[in-house]
């Protein structure tokens, strides 16, 4: 089933960036529709988009049969199936999913949310103790990554794959909002950037 369109945000989104990155690695070019998530109401919460994704979030992948696939890591798994970016053995695939679940449960809710508050508003409405919790939990996730990468080059072993893409999306900008990046994570970030077909997170044109 071929992808035919990607719906993403008009401001840089790490979750949408994951999809753009795997598409670039695979050499797949499809149209992109950018939605204003800062509008009132956000374009993702309007009837025309909710008809495509009832959860009202991006990224969303449209497929050639007219169906839609939401959730960034589910899209990664779908696009990588049958390619070198997803291990071909059951345990390898489970390891990839392990780190993708970690990214969505232990990493993204703190690192990505703190980034959003810092860059696009909301941090001034949070209590200092709330911010401290988000920073502590986000740093704890990055420290888990540091420990794991001290012993191997990629999250699923010897080969770059979708677990790395999922975790790279928000980690590569984490130092800009105050998270500490250790040497193993720093070296891994460099290895990801050096991969064939790598594309950078697009700049935030709304802030110019």
Question: Any chance you could write out the topology, listing elements then pairs?
Answer:
Blueprint: E1 3-9, H1 14-26, E2 32-35, H2 47-50, E3 60-63, E4 68-70, H3 72-80, H4 90-120, H5 128-149, H6 162-171, H7 183-193
Parallel strand pairs: 1-2
Antiparallel strand pairs: 1-3, 3-4
Put the structure in a nutshell:
This protein is 48% helix and 9% strand. It is of the alpha+beta class. Helix 1 links the parallel strand 1 and strand 2 (32-35).
Any low-confidence stretches, pLDDT <50, length ≥5? none
CATH fold call of the largest domain: Glutathione S-transferase Yfyf (Class Pi), Chain A, domain 2
Summarize the main sheet.
4 strands, mixed
Rounded to an integer in angstroms, the radius of gyration calculated over CA atoms is 17 Å
Spatial strand sequence of the major β-sheet: 2-1-3-4
Which CATH class of the largest domain is shown?
Mainly Alpha
Q: Roughly what is the average pLDDT, rounded to an integer?
A: 93
Q: Level of helix content? A: 40-55%
Using the 3D structure, state the CATH architecture of the largest domain: Up-down Bundle
